[in-house]
Amino acid sequence: MINFRYHIVSLAAVLFALAAGVLLGAGVLQQADEDDAKAGGTPEISPQLVGFDAGFASLTADDLLKGILKDRSVLV
């Protein structure tokens, strides 16, 4: 049978993990997020890549999607 000491140790471990998570989230990890935000966030996508993406989608869409919704009810 599990005694009272086991419950106290388990509760203490959970509270310690919660406190460690709060401290890390508010301190060390928060600073890393702020540094990333100051650095610019997301990189620029080159216009050539955007053009390739649009061209590829327009050329392959008919073959990939032809008949995919056949015999299915859809709401438009």
Considering the chains and any ligands shown, give keywords for the structure:
about 80 residues, single chain, mainly alpha
Write up this protein.
The chain is an all-alpha fold and 76 residues long. It is 70% helix and 0% strand. It has three helices and no strands. Helix 1 (4-26) runs parallel beside helix 2. It starts with a helix and ends in an 11-residue tail after the last helix. The model has no long low-confidence stretch (mean pLDDT 83).
Summarize the structure in short.
This protein is mainly α and 76 residues long.
Would you spell out the secondary-structure blueprint of this structure?
Elements: H1 4-26, H2 28-38, H3 47-65
Helix pairs in contact: 1-2
Please give the domain count.
1
Strand-pairing-aware structural class: mainly alpha
- Overall pLDDT score: 83
Spell out the helices and strands N to C.
HHH
Main β-sheet description:
none
Principal-axes geometry comes out as elongated
**Residue fraction in strands:** under 5%
- Report Rg: 27 Å
